[in-house]
Amino acid sequence: MKTIEVGLGDRSYNVHVGQGVRGMLAEVIPDEARRVAVITQESIPWAVDPGVEQLEVIVPPGEAAKTMATVESVCRRLAEWGCTRGDVIVAVGGGVVTDLAGFVAAVYHRGIRFVSVPTTLLAQVDAAIGGKTGVNLPEGKNLVGAFWQPSAVLCDTDTLDTLPPREFLSGTGEVAKYHFLGGGALDQLDLSDRVAACVQLKADVVAADERETGSRAVLNYGHTLAHAIEIVGGYDLRHGEAVSIGLVYAAEVARLLGRIDVQRVGEHRQVLEAYGLPSALPEALESEELLNLFAHDKKAIDGLTMVLDGPLGVETVVGIDRAVLLQAMSTVR
Hints:
seven-stranded mixed β-sheet; Dehydroquinate synthase-like, alpha domain; Rossmann fold; 2 domains; alpha/beta; two-stranded antiparallel sheet
């Protein structure tokens, strides 16, 4: 087992990574907690034992669960049960569950403690770490949310054994992102070490910029196009697969702006190919429609904004010319 601290002063917490660490749940539940509300989905084959009285709250499957309607439904269930600020929420599931449960924890009674037990690769290396919680609107992903840090995170790599191949592949899209954020040859590590390395990278970024006022935006590398693809819908791509295409697209934009060369773009494609990830945008998705959605992205600061690679590493670039963005779109067809 490896333990990584997310250093945030009095809001610091540990992320435990390794086989069987979900069995530590009772240890990380605050001693004074009377009861635990476990938020999960029916499709999750993993149970947990918090060591105290618990209520299981089942939310709908898939991304459709991340709505304000679901938040209201869960909060009303907690209220009916008599959940108070002395109790604890535990999220057991993928990124949808950890995003939703974390947001519920942030707003119910103006904030109660929660613990994440992410059961997918994507959630373990990204969604469950860092305190960004939220739900979607029809106009965009994660547009309603809050920064609310967990008390602890348990990344049990045993839970990854039951993931369908496409779900595991989706997680590798986020792992691939970390290659370009200083992670290097992550594919040469065994699974637990790979997860721990990604967690350490994210913990370092979050500790430096908890509320995404500056450097934390680099964690959205590849996500501008990915989120637009997900909003449009009507395709067979998972989140990490969309991020993979978004990484290549971001590299091509950076090349057209003279920030990186053709060889660096090739490195992006090679990393994604090694993981078996896609790098081509489906023809059915129209460039203009996707580009129009960029303005709704949370990173938008001053005009068209993206996180791009460059001579100083990955950073936020504002005011990108629309013609450049359209030209780069044609290179990932």
